[in-house]
């Protein structure tokens, strides 16, 4: 693995970094920009290649994986985060051939949860468009009731005060936002009830056209963080616009895989590789 700074913001003294994973060899390979989850408030680029992992499956299939960091809320709003993802894709296309021997015309984007959301955003915010997208338990809508209303599941946990959220950030801030239905407002500065159209640029489901990239959606039916219906909604929109897509449903699946469903994870990762291979230029 090698680490590069793909974006430097002098005014804020911030270096946004990317970890590049590839197996040995000089062959020019297709590349996947991988976007981590964490509600756009947490998380980082770290991925570990190990037997049974998504990263290892992608590497074994001949892909280079570029896992990126991006700025997080509340320090920045959503437009800045989207800019970071777009700039990362541009950097991979421009510098990737020289630095880590990838084909810039074979760029795919993949992410989990909030990273799945950002993946879907690249389908209309990144040019040239990625060859294909893979969204694990992601979402195409950020203004719906699931995010803009107090969430019953999260309100079962001890309520977080605004003071705690402001002081701690991270998971405390996320819990506060979900318990109070404030995530869309915190991330964008707009109220989805008073300014519904302000969310048009930030909802992939509202921006699907026939030119949208082929998309693979993966979601568990018992996801308590991002409702399964969010991927159903996105799949319906893709179908309505005649966009090539697949939808992998994980029966009784939650928000992610763990050791208890390692077999399901392995089968799903194989489906991911098959989907990517279908949309390579070869």
Describe what this molecule looks like in 3D:
- By secondary structure, this protein is an alpha/beta fold.
- The chain has 2 domains: 2-141 and 203-278, Rossmann fold, CATH 3.40.50; 143-202, no CATH class.
- It is built from 9 helices and 8 strands.
- The protein is globular and about 55 Å long.
- It starts with a strand and ends with a helix.
Brief account:
This protein has helices spanning 54-60, 78-100, 114-125, 145-148, 162-168, 170-180, 183-188, 228-240, 262-278; strands at 2-9, 14-21, 29-35, 64-68, 102-112, 133-136, 215-220, 245-250. Strand 3, helix 1 (54-60) and strand 4 (64-68) form a beta-alpha-beta unit. It is 35% helix and 20% strand.
Keywords:
alpha/beta, Rossmann fold, 2 domains, eight-stranded mixed sheet, 9 helices
Arithmetic mean of pLDDT:
96
Proportion of residues in β-strands: 15-25%
The low-confidence runs, each spanning 5 or more residues with pLDDT under 50, are none
- Which architecture of the largest domain would the CATH scheme give at its second level? 3-Layer(aba) Sandwich
Structural class: alpha/beta
CATH T-level topology of the largest domain = Rossmann fold
Topology:
Blueprint: E1 2-9, E2 14-21, E3 29-35, H1 54-60, E4 64-68, H2 78-100, E5 102-112, H3 114-125, E6 133-136, H4 145-148, H5 162-168, H6 170-180, H7 183-188, E7 215-220, H8 228-240, E8 245-250, H9 262-278
Parallel strand pairs: 3-4, 3-5, 5-6, 6-7, 7-8
Antiparallel strand pairs: 1-2, 2-4
Helix pairs in contact: 5-6
């Amino acid at each position: 693995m090698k680490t590069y700074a793909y974006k430097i913001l002098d005014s804020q003294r911030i270096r946004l970094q990317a970890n590049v994973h590839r197996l040995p060899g000089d062959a020019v390979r297709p590349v996947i920009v991988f976007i981590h989850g964490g509600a756009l408030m947490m998380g980082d680029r770290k991925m570990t290649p190990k037997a049974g992992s998504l990263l290892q499956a992608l590497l074994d299939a001949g892909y280079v994986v570029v896992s990126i960091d991006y700025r997080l809320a509340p320090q920045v709003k959503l437009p800045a985060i989207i800019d970071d993802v777009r700039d990362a894709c541009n950097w991979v296309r421009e510098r990737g051939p020289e630095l880590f021997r990838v084909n810039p015309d074979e760029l795919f984007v993949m992410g989990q949860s909030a990273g799945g959301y950002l993946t879907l955003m690249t389908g209309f915010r990144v040019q040239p468009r990625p060859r294909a997208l893979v969204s694990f338990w992601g979402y195409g809508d950020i203004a719906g009731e699931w995010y803009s209303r107090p969430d019953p599941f999260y309100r079962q946990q001890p309520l977080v005060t605004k003071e705690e959220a402001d002081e701690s950030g991270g998971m405390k801030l996320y819990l506060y936002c979900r318990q109070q239905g404030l995530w869309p407002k915190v991330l964008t500065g707009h109220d989805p009830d008073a300014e519904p159209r302000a969310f048009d640029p930030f909802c992939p489901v509202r921006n699907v056209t026939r030119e949208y990239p082929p998309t693979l959606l993966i979601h568990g039916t018992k996801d308590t963080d991002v409702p399964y219906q969010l991927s159903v909604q996105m799949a319906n929109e893709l179908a309505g616009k005649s966009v090539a897509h697949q939808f992998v449903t994980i029966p009784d699946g939650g928000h992610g895989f763990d050791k208890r469903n390692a077999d399901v994870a392995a089968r799903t990762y194989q489906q991911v590789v098959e989907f990517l291979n279908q949309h390579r230029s070869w």
